Each structure stands twice: as structure tokens, then as C-alpha cells.
Amino acid sequence: MDQIDHAAAPPIIELRNFRYTYLEGTPRASEAIRDVSFSIRRGERVGIVGPTQSGKSTVVDSFAHLLRLKAGQVFHDGEDVATPGYDRGALRRRVGIVFQQPDSQLVEDVVGADVAFGPTAAGLSAEETRRRVEESLDALGLPYPEYRLRYIHALSGGQRRRVAIAGVLAMHTPVLVLDEPMAGLDPRGRRELMELLIRLQKDRDLTLIVCSASLSDASLLCDRFIVLDAGRVVVDGPVREVLREPGRLAELDITLPEPVLCARELGKLFSDLPTAVLTEDELEAEVLKRLGLV
């Protein structure tokens, strides 16, 4: 599907004045989302960013109807997911969420069986299920012949995260939601997973949504940031546009990318130095330009 088709279709996910209160109607009621509206189109790479208790997880859970939702607030492909009779099972096969702790969604002891769980439950044939398991494990850098019979408990944290992602990909979900995907990974693991996700998003035309309290990795994975604070959207725009306000982001206790932090410091020497730099190479080029060396 090309970009024109994406633009003509209804948003794949849309929130309209979404509000949510945990334990509503009880003395322990806690308002998590106050009034959130935004839409996400097919093929977008969006970061849902905010500090702790900003409402990120609640927003993400709403995408797959993992909460008690009220009508008229959450839509998938233009349909209200809270309408009586709406097929929630089908929705969860189209919106795949990989939670921050991958162990919470690994249900089998062996890698191949775990990745096969979703397709099998969906009623796919054994042949199609095996094909999808092989395809997904290979796509995540876990070669099928080598990993299909490995025990989950013997894998590293990064490998378990990849298995969890493979389980979602095996469902051929068009929307992939990742909650803190780089948490606990070493620099090499983060770089490898980031490269894999970028390639998968392009190859499969995925809608990629990354939920994080840090812009460090999300700035390289996403094209757009939706910034939450205290249950409201406070910033929504292209990544570089959002990074032009590092002071505001820092006040919200959001971790800024290292190149942006360096640019803020160097701004004391070069008043016109942009902060919307995504990599160290971009920052170096901007500094050299101001030194007249390029």
C-alpha cells in the first residue's frame, strides 16, 4: 500500500477526548488520562513519550482494548472499539503489544512453541504456523534451526525480548507497539534491535509505536513524538520539531538524546547551534560549520 492509500484511509488508531480513571467510582479512584486526542496513520513511526505517571501505559493499553473503554473515545480503522459486539480478539491480532518485561508474555518453555502460540490459537494450520515461526525468528536474528528448540529460560534478556517480538510478528499484525524496547539492553543489543526494527518496519510496512520515558533511542526509531504529561498531550509533532524545545522536555523529566544534551552545552559557545540533532555526526557537522572548517 503506497503513501497515497495511507493518506486516504482512516487513521489506523485514533483517540478522541480519551479519558480514563482507574477504580472509577471508588474511594481509590485515580485519574490517569484527562483528555487525550490524536490519530496515527498507517506506516507511521510514532513515539509515545512522557515521564513516569504521565499516562503512557494507559494510552498504549487502550489501543488493544485492554481496559474498560467507553464508547466514542478509541477507534481502530475508523471503528469505535467500545461498540457492543466489536471483535476484541480480532483487534488484538491487528495491534500487537510487546510489554517492557518480555517474560510477562512468554507463555511456553521452548522458543518455537512460544512463537507458535498465537498463530495456533488463531486456528492457522500447522504448516502455516511453522512457516510464520521460521519467518519471524529469522527476521529477529534468531535463526530458526538454531533457536526453535531452545529453552526460554536459557536465553539472555535481549534474546527473550526478540522472542516476544517474534511472537507478535508471527500474527502478521499491522501495528507493532513496543513498551520501552531498549530497557536492560547493552549498547550493542540496543543498536542491533534498533536496526532490526527499522528494517522490519520498512519491509512489512508496519505502523510502529514506541512507548518510552527517553528520547535517546526513540528519536532514531520514530518520525513523530506525542509527549504526555499528567494525562494530557503537551507536544505532538515531527521529531526534529520537538527536539527544538529541549528545555521544555527536560522540565518534564524526559531523558534527552546525548547529541541534544551536547548541543545545549555547546549553545553557550555557538548561540545559533541547533538542538534538533539526532546523531553525533550531525552535531559534529554543525559545529565544524560554525568553526568555518567545512
Q: Please indicate the count of domains.
A: 1
| Distance between the ends | 41 Å
CATH superfamily label: P-loop containing nucleotide triphosphate hydrolases
CATH class: Alpha Beta
Task: Give a structural overview.
The chain has 294 residues and is an alpha/beta fold. The chain has a single domain (3-256), classed as P-loop containing nucleotide triphosphate hydrolases (Rossmann fold), CATH 3.40.50.300. 39% of the residues lie in helices and 20% in strands. The protein has 13 helices and ten strands. The strands form two sheets. Strands 6-7-8-3-9-10 form a six-stranded mixed β-sheet, sandwiched between helices. A four-stranded antiparallel β-sheet has the order 2-1-4-5. It is globular, with a radius of gyration of 20 Å. The model has no long low-confidence stretch (mean pLDDT 90).
